[in-house]
Amino acid sequence: MAVNSKQIDVKNLALGMYISKLDVPWIKTSYPIEGFYIQDQKDIQKLSSLCQFVYIDVDLTKLRVDISHLENISSGSTQGLNIQSSVDEQTIYSSKEHNHVQSRIQLKRDQSLYTERTPFEKEFKTANKLYESITQNAEKVLEQIASGHEFDIKQVKTTAGAMVESIIRNPDAFLWLSRLKAKDTHTHNRSIRATIWAIAFGRHLSLPKTDLTELSIAVLLANIGKARLPRQLLEKSENLEGAERSVYRKHINISVNLLKKMSLFSKGTIETVAAHCERFDGSGYPKKLTGEQIIFPAQIAGIVCYYEKITNQRDSKYSLDATRAMEHLYQLRNTKFQTELVEEFIQSIGIYPAGSLIELNSKEIAVIVEQNEHHRLMPKVMILRDSQKKKISTLKILDLSKLSRDKGVCPKIINSIPLGSYDIDSEEIINSIHAADKNWVMKKLFS
């Protein structure tokens, strides 16, 4: 949800202020990414040692402290989260204008967008059926392209629109499915998962629905050119060099030419497909564009496609779990990808996305069922293994945010682990949900 925020120097911090953003990445601190109140002088001292400035949530801060003495805090604050830099300020990409953004982007969120959520258990039923339909349609599109035929454009746009509608209502439902389908590395499944990440990211940035739909179409079709490449290149695409790499990289131009030939896709869609493999520092392809030369939706597409690749390698032993993937992305800030966008992507997906396997401080192994939007480090989880890593006899779904408020109980996530650890696969997770807490509606989702 968008925040009415104000940037202030750490010298002006006071007890009771609600910190909504730091000038350093959350992932490199011990603070919860959903924000926190300053409780005592130790918090102020710690923030002063970490940051030069922070952002406070104006509305939450006013509940506890008088902040009228801070210049323009009431009348001059900007609605929405402003990502600022010491270089330039830019306006966010609009579907009506395809101007290039500069090397730093100022994101302004509309507070009215996406503040309501459909209950997860209700949206999952819709998403589960839709995912199967999308998979079939995407596979058919690649088969048609591979055989030299045109594909059903109307069906692609309908599919993209349905995904956007579902993820707007509740992103966790599709994010959950993307994790359960992670082992399928066929091109069409990679594209579907990348599209899910893209829409969820765009929702987090409060992009208008029209922009989300255009972005989803671009990411869904970004790799259609691969259908025209030799299968052996696709199977070893992560280890190509020399002439083979040059041939493989032609998939971008093939995709662009296919879309142009059909004459029914917007300029923005085609530009996003053309530039989604470009990188912020110029190390991408095919044109080696840099910073401001890469349009904003292509920068989003680049991040989500890269995230999909590193979390779902064809050889699973090289895949990164969600937390390590985020750490890896953080290391690429301001080189492969823009710093601000990397940080926002980490916040949008979370360090522990829905469907991830995690370990608790109790040494139990669980799967994340649903995010808690206001307490992202305390989601709903389902315990799958006890502290000895053995299967448990009674399955329960626990809300960590509620348990943490109970006296003497403070469960925490201490680590994320890959799917397949301790012999836990997607089939076991689905079967476990069937047998979970009879009072939780999730038991009906797969019936």
Task: Describe this protein's structure.
The structure is a single chain. β5 (357-360) and β6 form a beta hairpin. The longest helix is centred in the N-terminal third of the chain and has 27 residues, at 120-146. Mean pLDDT is 79; it is low at 71-104 and 437-447. Strands 8-7-6-5-9 form a five-stranded antiparallel beta sheet. It has helices at residues 41-50, 58-62, 120-146, 153-169, 171-180, 187-204, 209-221, 231-235, 242-248, 251-262, 267-275, 296-311, 322-331, 339-349, 400-403, 426-434; strands at 5-9, 18-22, 36-37, 53-57, 357-360, 365-370, 380-385, 397-399, 413-417. It has three domains: 5-62, no CATH class; 120-349, Hypothetical protein af1432, CATH 1.10.3210; 357-444, no CATH class. With 447 residues, the protein is an alpha+beta fold.
How much helix, percentage-wise, in residues?
A: 40-55%
How are strands sequenced across the largest beta sheet? Answer: 8-7-6-5-9
CATH topology of the largest domain: Hypothetical protein af1432
Q: Roughly what is the average pLDDT, rounded to an integer? A: 79
Q: Which class of the largest domain in CATH terms?
A: Mainly Alpha
